[in-house]
Specification:
The chain is an alpha+beta fold. The chain has a single domain (6-85), classed as YhbY-like (Translation Initiation Factor IF3, 2-Layer Sandwich). It contains three helices and four strands, in the order H-E-H-E-H-E-E. Strands 1-2-4-3 form a four-stranded mixed beta sheet, with helices on both faces. The radius of gyration is 15 Å and the shape is globular. The mean pLDDT is 86.
């Protein structure tokens, strides 16, 4: 799991406040399909807001599981929303050769 400094967490919380929920945890919960969509979304956006539409009573347990299963850090959980952070992977330094 990703370890963040207090200053990083503070900055990410401020950025997370401005986001709209990208994904919603529905009836299926943390299904394989949801986790695949979460992984794909984190590849494109470092910071994501996830809303718990269903399983609201389990959100305290599910939010850390989301972070663990996606390889991200749980920045904050407020109400029915969790904010996750995972740095984008470094771009490949190898440039493909042009086709002739």
């Amino acid at each position: 799991m990703i370890q963040l400094k207090k200053t990083e967490i503070r900055e990410l919380k401020a950025r997370g406040q401005l986001l709209k929920a990208t994904l919603k945890v529905g009836k299926e919960g943390l299904s394989a399909g949801f986790l695949a969509a979460l992984d794909e979304a984190l590849k494109h956006n470092e910071l994501l807001k996830v809303r718990f539409d269903d399983h609201k009573e389990e959100k305290k347990e599910l939010a850390p599981q989301l972070a663990e299963k996606s390889g991200s850090a749980l920045v904050m959980r407020v109400g029915n929303v969790a904010v996750l952070y995972r740095p984008k992977p470094a771009p490949d330094t190898e440039v493909p050769a042009p086709e002739a």
